[in-house]
Amino acid sequence: MTQELENASTWPVGLCVFCGLPAAGKTTIARALSESLRKQKGWLCVHLAYDDLMPLEAFSQSETSVVQEGRQPLASYWKLYRHVLLQYLEHFLQALIEGCRYLPPPKGTEGTWKKFVCCLKEQGVLSLGPEAPAPCQHLINTTTLQPVYFILDDNFYYRSMRYEVYQLARKYSLGFCELFLDCSVEVCLQRNCQRTQPLPEETICAMVQKLEIPNSEKYAWEKNSLILKSTKYTSEDNLRVLNLLSATLENPLKPLEENTEHKEVDRALCAASFLHQADQAVRRTVSQTMKNAKDNNLTPSKMKSLAQELNKLKVEFLEDLKHQYNEKKQCYSENTLAMNTSLFHQQTNDTAKKYFLCK
Question: SUPFAM superfamilies this protein is in (predicted)?
Answer without folding.
Answer: P-loop containing nucleoside triphosphate hydrolases
